[in-house]
């Protein structure tokens, strides 16, 4: 009981993932800044931002549905932080592992987007409403390639648990190379989920101010910001666990270090991609996802089906 | 689809996409723009009226502050008009220096625009890069004139500062750096896929519409309108400069981008010619304090398009009337046309693509009905009372505050 509580709240639960996400946010911002030829923030900037926002007054719009408006950020934070608990960090097994946990992680990572929609919709601001509609429209575009990309890897391993996936790829070295396309598709879809350039359409500042977050302030905005950071870490961790299960034989500590390095590698890829592109329009984004990403994910599915039928027979 | 799908969003007077307060009220259906209402007038400063209360020399500095970016354009345009009335023969060296500063100003304005355009389409990397390189030309302007903006270079009858050989060498060095960087930006703007996706086909303004709506500057030239005051009605040292007028037939935001980046290359060419052929001699002639009665119109190709000043003098030391037609006023009507049937996401870049400068544009126009001779003139007192009443009817009462203020002032 005490051990479980410790795991959930402190390590590798809420406290650890929050700290890691703030470090990851700093890493992302600093790298983004250096790539843009700027100096970038000092290391404590994300934490300072978070504390400052916590101390600020929160304003709830007069017409807003106060319950939904206030609950949305809490749900978002809780679901993003919970998703991280199911990802194996230093061995094959996560804290709470069961068959089907990969679906639960994907589901928990979808929840924040739903809460963005609900929060934006119930804040009754025009900009927030446009933002929330864009967020939900975008969801239908990136979610399917993301699921297909990640689940095709599970299909090859013939399991629905992250535990099974890590064991499978650990026993068969270099099998993860088969999933390169799936990795690329998932990474780009993840950028849509995290609302990063070129997919930052729901919060495009020059069009809809801050989109969903326009009316949010103080604690609630801090929760949403932290949610996005944790979502980034959890998403990167999921990708690392599914697509890069290397170094498992070297012992827990080495695997942990390698795992964190993988997470930061994925985040640096995201930073790089968001530096070199302009924001797409929502119609272009959806066309891109359905025209290129879904066929690529289907191709990955085919590769894995053939691999399963021929190589693993 | 029924009517409840339609809604109006206020872009401005305060909005992150706008650098100055201006109101665009957008009627939307989903993401599609049904119509746009443009309302200018949030930045009216009464510069024209203020000019009538100041001497010509003071006016040069006031007019320079019409715009923060093309300050040299406005002051040159104004002094040209005054010099024409006074019949002053401005020395050649002064004309060359004016041209040099004008082209450096164009370089900094176009680089600034490229960055802003990048920001509007969510490409902040381009903003950071261009604004970093813009520092080169800003430093050069500070070196030549002492200021990064509002150079204070012009005076009636010439310029106020001479250019030394060392300064000229510095400028040439800067041009080499900028030329290399600009070549890179031309490559980025014409080859980067996501930029082209966001710019190409957006904000179409075809040749006949550009003529009909009186577009000027790069906005018109991107619609294949071959117009440039520097060539068509040359002023300063432009008659002796060899340069090309850049036009483009894309007629969209992409074309406007291409025109601007290519104009940068022409600007470097002109700067080099200026420095190479600059004649020796005085930099100013003495202007009379009182300008003889008369009137003049002066045209000038500012970075944003043709700028026009009208000055009427009555033989005293103060002008009777000064009229400024900033290029944005000519272009702003085209925006409405360009936004027809576009998406909300295109709105920031379409507005930005005319390189708007709203505070230069704001004018007070009193419209007199033809069939009704009577028109109302509000005195200062009446206007003051009207504003108090206006706010009170909307629930804000400033009476207590006004009492306090008048007590404090005494």
Question: Would you mind describing this structure in some detail?
Answer:
Chain A has 313 residues and is mainly alpha-helical. Chain A has one domain (2-311). Helix content of chain A is 71%, strand content 0%. The longest helix of chain A has 32 residues, at 126-157. Chain A is globular and about 65 Å long. With 410 residues, chain B is α+β, with helices and mostly antiparallel strands. Chain B has a domain at 6-43 and 331-408. Chain B is built from 16 helices and 8 strands. In chain B, the strands form 3 sheets. Chain B has a 3-stranded antiparallel sheet, with no helix packed on it. Chain B has a 3-stranded antiparallel sheet with strand order 6-7-8. In chain B, helix 4 (92-120) packs antiparallel against helix 5. The longest helix of chain B has 29 residues, at 92-120. Chain B is globular. The chains are: A mainly alpha (313), B alpha+beta (410). Chain A binds chain B through residues 35-38, 126-127, 130, 197-198, 200-201, 204-209, 275-284, and chain B through 7, 9-10, 15-17, 28, 31, 118-126, 128-129, 132, 192, 194-195, 197-198, 343-348.
